[in-house]
Amino acid sequence: MTRVRLRWADGREDVVSCDDESVLAAAEREGVRLPAGCRRGFCGTCTSYLVAGVVGYDTEPRALRTRHRRRGYVLPCIARPETACTLRVGPEVVRELRQNPWR
Amino acid sequence: MSDVATHTDGHAHHAHHHVGYATPQAAIEQSEPERVAYVPALYVGTDVDAPDRLTVVDVDPDSATYCEVLHEVPMPHAGDELHHFGWNACSSSCHVEGLERRYLLVPGQRSSRIHVIDTENRREPELVRTIEPESVSEYDLSAPHTVHCAPGGSILVSMLGNADGDLPGGFLELDAEFEIVGRWDPPGEISMNYDFWYQPRRNVMVSSEWAAPKTYQPGFDFADVEAGRYGRRIHVWDWKQREVRQTLDLGKEGLLPLEVRFLHDPESTHGYVGAALSSNVFHFFERDGEFRAEKVIDVETREHDDWEIPVPGVITDLVVSMDDRYLFFSNWVHGEVRMYDASDRAHPRLTDTLAVGGLYGDPNPTGDRPLNAGPQMLQLSLDGTRLYFTTSLYSTWDDQFFPGEAEAGSVMLKADVNPRKGTMTLDTDFLVDFGTLPAGPARAHEIRWPDADCTSDVWV
């Protein structure tokens, strides 16, 4: 069991225990709703920010550009915690990556 | 709504939803003005933690609830991104095969879940069936987009990616009972996919290209265009053989060819496709057994103080009037609807424009609700006199270009069209505000009518 702390923009925190499963699967099993779309790592709807800890992937997190992945963004739908983790979660997180490409 | 539709050829229909029109002209003559519209309202990617829903909008000016959302059908799960959707049967099918145009197939673009909604009660439709993403990914497909009915009661859905959100996409075929038949096309026949339209009498289908879901779903990045990850080709299929017989490269002028519209005349091989990013309209047609595509409309870029480069119009939707006389399209970023006389197919003639929302249009055209974005999805009344539109394109792209769509929601607006004069006038009394839905501000996308659509019905 690995403990994952989910921190929301309003300061609220949920703590869930991951048992060889994705952060999203653990959260949903414990009744915590996270944003999610494809659930296979390509749409980016669930994008969160890894504040502390290490996560691993069985498949490539296709929705994350390399520069975003390097900055610490992760995909809870396919990310498995390898250590205790703290994630910033919620719909605001993915919007941090949005920019008008021509402005 | 009459319970029995009597046709001019004398035969009456047995039930009120066995709507059918023998020809596009019959649809114009025999249809009644639209009273309800089906429009998806989306919460994916917003601060509202709720499932997307299909809404029923009252568009009957004689109704006490005119311009209001009458009913909502919430999806079972959040995060679908409802987008395009379509009918189980074309309004033409009634005369051909006795099918009922009654069920809406409503895909989740992100979730790959496909919902079936029964509109027997037009004002309070019901979700009756859900095809789960796991059943779809078994066929190595994802990201369902356009739904068209096909001859024989089957239903075809364009799928933009493989199960991993990568290329190639393809087509998923459902039967009349909404069971998955399988993949319609041989895998690898195309790489990118988006919209499609077919003309069965000419044994032809044309499909277009957006990108892999992993490319467009997280958001638009110009580096992906430069890397060739966005489409610029259209594919001409042998409809019966399910094979691509020709691929037409539209080049740099044809980046992101999205909506495909054949003329409604079932014998015609003429059609149009809008290249969203290049902001050009291409006319495709068959000559001497070969299809060709030629650029016939070029929307000029415009300067804007806040933008580093000239701003493209971004043609995101187009509609051909049921009589095939007029072509309308939206410039989502500029904030404009254009109307062209398409009677000379190769030389569309601009007859009118409407500048609302977007970067250059009237930001508050009805006087009581500022717009966050430009006109996007279009739908035209069957008689060609009322043009409706909504303002959201795609959640992640909205957030980049018009973030106000997530915060304040979309609107649905209407222009009155004069087909004699070739003009449009915004109806400033018509406003459907998706910012005021009970669950919170929602994006609004494609518009469909119960009886027939100018953007989906095919005469077999």
Automatic annotation (TrEMBL), chain A:
Coiled coil: none
Domain of life the protein comes from: Archaea
Pfam families xrefs: Fer2
Name by which UniProt lists this protein: Ferredoxin
Family: Belongs to the 2Fe2S plant-type ferredoxin family.
Residue span, 2Fe-2S ferredoxin-type domain: 2-93
GO MF annotations, alphabetized: 2 iron, 2 sulfur cluster binding; metal ion binding
UniProt source species: Halogeometricum limi
Cofactor(s) required, per the database record: [2Fe-2S] cluster
Protein keywords: 2Fe-2S, Electron transport, Iron, Iron-sulfur, Metal-binding, Transport
Automatic annotation (TrEMBL), chain B:
Reactions accelerated catalytically: methanethiol + O2 + H2O = hydrogen sulfide + formaldehyde + H2O2 + H(+)
SUPFAM superfamilies linked to this entry: 3-carboxy-cis,cis-mucoante lactonizing enzyme (SSF75011)
EC primary class: oxidoreductase
EC numbers: 1.8.3.4
GO molecular function, one term: methanethiol oxidase activity
Record pathway: Organosulfur degradation
InterPro entries (alphabetical): Se-bd (IPR008826), WD40/YVTN_repeat-like_dom_sf (IPR015943)
PANTHER family, sorted: METHANETHIOL OXIDASE (PTHR23300)
Family to which the UniProt record says this protein belongs: Belongs to the selenium-binding protein family.
Protein name (database record): Methanethiol oxidase
Organism: Halogeometricum limi
Organism taxonomic ancestry: Archaea, Methanobacteriati, Methanobacteriota, Stenosarchaea group, Halobacteria
